[in-house]
Amino acid sequence: MARKISSLLFLYLITCLPVLRAGNGTTGPVDEVVILFPGAPSPTSDKCLIRFYLPESDPNSSIRILSKDSTLIKEINLNGEFGVNSLPINVSDWNAGIYLYQLFYKGEAKKTLSFEVKH
Fold first, then answer.
1. Distances (CA, A) of 34 to 39, 69, 73, 83
2. Could you say which architecture CATH assigns to the domain 31-117?
3. Those residues with Cβ within 8 angstroms of residue 3's Cβ, 6 or more apart along the chain or in another chain
4. In what helix (H) or strand (E) does residue 14 lie, and over which residues does it extend?
5. Which residues, in sequence order, are CB contacts of 43 under 8 Å at separation 6+?
6. Averaged pLDDT, 23-27
7. Contact by Cβ (8 Å): 22, 98
8. pTM here?
9. Please, are residues 115 and 42 in contact by the beta-carbon 8 Å criterion?
10. Nearest CA to 82 among 117, 58, 60, 108?
11. CB-CB contact of 99 with 73 (8 Å)
């Protein structure tokens, strides 16, 4: 049931993106909306899927994965991807714990979320 609700919410968001309010009370295209979805599954022991939405291509966009103490574990260049994308991360050889992941787009961190690795 929860998966069906999140799928419907996701479809609604993608459908509405072009006409969301821009924050100043006007409507129109929102070209800076980025979405970072929760890693799934969490907790995980072998793979974590990170999904994101970018409105347009940015050759410098990336996902940075950090340990709980903010040490950089991995940086993945998104190679100018845009739209809805998925990024599988193999975590089977990582230590158990909480990891943060950040979406960098147009030179700044847009969103930070976390996932848990358990063995």
1. 16, 25, 23, 9
2. Sandwich (2.60)
3. none
4. helix 2-16
5. 115, 116, 117, 118
6. 44
7. no
8. 0.72
9. yes
10. 58
11. yes
Mean pLDDT of the chain: 83
64 against 16, higher pLDDT: 64
Terminus-to-terminus CA distance in the chain, angstroms? 27
Integer angstrom CA distances of residue 90 from 7, 46, 59, 95: 24, 6, 23, 12
What are the residue ranges spanned by the domains of the chain? 1-30, 31-117
CA nearest 110: which of 55, 73, 71?
55
With bands split at pLDDT 50, 70 and 90, how would you rate the model's confidence at 86? very high
Strand residue runs (E) in 5-96: 35-36, 47-54, 62-67, 72-77, 83-90
Among the residue ranges 19-33, 36-50, 55-69, the one predicted with the least confidence is 19-33
pLDDT at 33: 86
Average pLDDT over residues 70-95: 94
Question: From CA 17, how far away is CA 30, in angstroms rounded?
Answer: 7
- Tokens 């599988």 correspond to what residue? 88
